[in-house]
Structure formats: structure tokens, C-alpha cells
Amino acid sequence: MEGMELIAFNIISNVGTAKSLVMEALYAAREGLYEEAEAKLKESRQFLLVGHNAHLELIQEEALGKQLTFSLIIMHAEDQMMSVETINDLVIEMIRMYKDINQLKAVIHTDSFGK
């Protein structure tokens, strides 16, 4: 494996790991483990950055005049990268919602028991 194919698989592998970490962050937040969730999100950004850098390498090659061939593998890699970016944004918002919901539950629980 070399060239475009190697870059595509580099993107797919790294953004796939990023997606797994983003989902792990969501699951941790659901359990109220917000520090763990933040750590997972931070780690996921490192993998997403590696994927972005590999993609940028292709863009730079094309900008320098190299003719890149159409590739379903590259298309798939770009699709995966974009979906992880979207999922990441949604999960960040969902974690905020979990925090708000749990704060409200704590207030309701305190008010219900007169503490």
C-alpha cells in the first residue's frame, strides 16, 4: 500500500479512533463522569488532527499541480472525517445537556426532601 491509498487509510484509521473516543466521552457523560468525558474528547481531537493533517497533505499536493486520481477510498475517508466532526459537535452539546439535566435533578431532589 502506498501513496493515496496509504493516506486514505491513515485518515480512516485516525478518524475512526477519534469517533470511538467521542462516543466513549458521551457514554462517560451519561454516567456523570464529566472529567473522563472531557479527557476522551481531548484525546479524540489528537486523532482527528492526524487525520486532518493527512488530508491536508493531499490538498497541498493538488495545489502544487499534482493530478490526483478520483478514489472511492479517499471519498470514504473524507466522508468519515466529516461525520466525526459532526458527531463531535453534537456530543459536546449533549454533554452540556447531561450536565444541565443532572444539575436540575439535584435541585429537584434537594427541594423534594427539604434539605
Provide the CATH superfamily: Phosphotransferase system, lactose/cellobiose-type IIA subunit
Q: Per DSSP, what share of the residues sits in E-state strands of 2 or more residues?
A: under 5%
CATH architecture: Up-down Bundle
DSSP, total strands: 0
Shape: rod-shaped
Largest sheet: none
What's the level 1 CATH class?
Mainly Alpha
- Helix % is over 70%
The secondary structure category is mainly alpha
**Order of helix and strand elements from N to C terminus:** HHH
**Radius of gyration computed on alpha carbons:** 19 Å
Q: What is the straight-line distance between the termini?
A: 65 Å
Mean pLDDT: 92
- Overall number of domains: 1
CATH topology description: Methane Monooxygenase Hydroxylase, Chain G, domain 1
Outline the low-pLDDT stretches: none
Q: Count of helical segments?
A: 3
